[in-house]
Amino acid sequence: MSDKKMPPSINYMLERNIGKKVRVIIDPAYGFEGILSAVTQKPSGIWISEVEAIILRATIAQPIPQVASREERGDIFLHLDSIQRIEILQDKNQ
After folding, report:
1. Dist. CA 59–CA 44, nearest whole Å
2. How many CA atoms lie within 13 A of 48 on its CB side?
């Protein structure tokens, strides 16, 4: 066997960020923001608490999608197959 290190799995990378605020994009115009609370393997997914559903909008003048509206939700489970992108958000205090 070679001494190559295997890259960390997605579950390991997500587990390192438990307790941090995340933005999860489901499709180009819709997603969720909240605190990453748990990562599961079977079924493969994530639990997010203190969730806000977000609507994203992009324009020709501003092509990077911006949050256009928010709506309070509870705690949710998202299957990894339904997620397009996960962003770890920085605290403004850091």
Report:
1. 34
2. 28
Q: What does each C-alpha distance from 57 to 8, 41, 43, 61 come to in angstroms? A: 33, 32, 31, 11
Instruction: With 0.90 as the threshold, say if the pTM is over it.
Output: no
> Are 15 and 22 contacting, i.e. CB atoms less than 8 angstroms apart?
no
Contact between residue 21 and residue 47 where contact means Cβ atoms under 8 Å apart = no
Distance CA 24, CA 88 (A): 9
pLDDT in tens, 16-74: 999 999 999 999 899 999 999 999 988 889 999 999 999 999 999 988 889 999 999 99
CA–CA gap between residue 44 and residue 19 (Å, rounded): 18
